[in-house]
Each structure stands twice: as C-alpha cells, then as structure tokens.
Amino acid sequence: MKDSVTLHGKKFTAFLSEKEILLAVQKIADDIARDYKDEVPIFVGVLNGAFMFASDFLKCYPYPCEVSFVKLSSYRGLTSTGIVETLLDLPEQVEGRHVIILEDIVDTGRTLQELVHMFANKNVKDFKIASLFYKSEIYNGEYPIDYFGIEIPDKFIVGYGLDYREQGRNLRNVYQLKKQPMINLVLFGKPGAGKGTQAAFLKERYGLKHISTGDVFRYNIKNGTELGKLAQSYMDKGDLVPDEVTIRMLQDEVEKATEASGFIFDGFPRTTAQAEALDNFLESKEMSIDATIALEADDEVLIERLLERGKVSGRADDQDAGKIRNRFEEYNAKTAPLKAYYQQQGKFHSVNGIGEIQEITRRLSAVIDQL
Q1: Domains of the chain (ranges plus CATH)?
Q2: Looking at 190, 195, 209, 305, which residue is catalytic?
C-alpha cells in the first residue's frame, strides 16, 4: 500500500487497506444474507462511487439476488453542492420486492434523501440501506442506516470507487486528503500601492482566495442577495454598513472557497473592531490570520502613479493630487491602530512596494515563505 497519492495537485495519505475494506464488505454481505436468505432481494448500486463495492459485495453474497444501478451526483471537487442530480433512473419491476441500496458512503444524507424519495411511490416490500463507509458525525439521521461496513471521521477520501474530480476510483486502497496548513493574509497598502496586482500573483502562487471587500459588496448588491439588500438599506439611509453584515459577506466567500489553501483579505479590516471581529470569525472556523503585510511606498511616488492611472481610468479621485493626499491621510489614521493591533500579535510585516512588479512579488513571497 502506497503511503500517499497525488490527484489534481492534492495529496492524499494512506487511510484504509484493501484487506480492511474487503473484510468490511464481507461483514455487510454476511449481515444481509442472514436477514434475506429466504428471499430474492434486488440490490441497487449507486454509481459511480459504489461500483467496486457492489462488485465485491455480489461476489460475497451467497444466495439468489438481482442487481441494478442508479446514478446520482451531488459532489463537485471536495464538497457536496447540496443539489442532487438524477443521472440514471430506477430499475423497473421493483413493486413488491425487497430493495437494498448499496452506497459507497453516507455523509450528510442528501443523496440518501433523494434515493428514498425515488422509491417512495414504488410500493416496494421493504427498503434497506447498506453503505460501505459511514460518516456518523455529520449524517443528519433522517433515515436509518441498516447496514454499514466502516464508520469513518469526516475526512474527504478517495479510492475503491470514490474519486476526486473523477480520479482515484481505480485505487485498491482508500486515501484521505492531507490537510495542508492554511495561509491567511491581510494585505494593506495606500491607494496605488499595487495591492490588487500583487494579490493576483500571490493567489496563483500559493493557491489562495483573494477576497476584496469592495468586490464582495458590489457582487452582493448587484445580484440582490439577502446581504446585498441589507447592506443597501443602510447605504440608502446614509448609514455605515454594520461590521456584522460585512463579516457575513466574508463568511459566505470563505465557505464557498472550500479548495483554497488560504485567503487574502483586501480592504478589511479597516478598524480594530473589525480586526477583532475577523479574528473571532476565523477562530470559529479553526483558522487565524497568519500575517498582515503592508505595501509601503513614498507618497510622492504613489501620487505620480495615481495621476497616471487617472488618465486611463477616468476616476476623478485619481486626477486631483489634493484628493489623493486626503485619501492617504485617511489611510494613515485608520491603519495606525491596526498596525499596533497586529504588531502586538507579532503578525505585522512591512514590505517595500516600490520597484518592478516581479521584485515586489519576490519580497512578499519571502515573508510568506517564512510563515
């Protein structure tokens, strides 16, 4: 058994051997055989994941039976979408029959719920569920799991029919996703310091998700989400959007980016209270900010850079040196307390933001590589 495998750039480490799996399959077959030795059940395998389980199970089952398959899907990558699609429909002639579902894995129960609904109006004699793997800690418990082989923790696994983005199904053993240490950054910088440019390079290099508060606000408001409407209601009255609304927007972005190796927070926090709120939210997700990095640059250099940008962008606030200086003063006033907050945690880093783009990226990477 290999110690690890790599699929689509993700590393998976050894979890269950083929021998352990086959013993679990035999146990399920023995338990069902004991209950149905005088009947001829229909075993319904759930594709694609259960094809290996169904094959080995049928080799172990000693009595007459029939077999068919259905195909459902709720997974994309590492997580369930919550939407179950029916890709291959029910077998015919199940009325009055004993139906036993052969599932590769039961976790949240969404797919199981769809299966139960599929058979609800078929007048089967009885309906049982047999799963090779069972994640009891996250299963919603709506339906009983009549037979299962191995109870496992809530880890993403591949092998023996289970896949990661369609790879890994052919592995004889089962491997679990190796949790990579996350890198969570707060990126500071005055207007024109190049935060957006550098964030684009860093997210590609380290597999991070760039969360720009401005972009998140615009998305929610433009698409009329619940949080967007809530934020707009404050803005329409001329009030500041409360921190808890912003945090909820960020929370949605974090929870959607399940495959990210970490996050770059850009534009948030802007106050010490927001920094504390962000820390509390991340702690609830068993994460934390690893570093805050400030791109430092001489004001005169940045003013010249912004004035040039204003000629292209047409932004009024990039075409007036006086307005630009006011924005710098506002940045300094807001950032000073945040700098002290993160310095107390030993997480504040200052990086020279003047020079060629590639050179600045190397300076930022040197800080991150030390984390």
Answers
A1: 4-177 (3.40.50.2020), 183-369 (3.40.50.300)
A2: 195
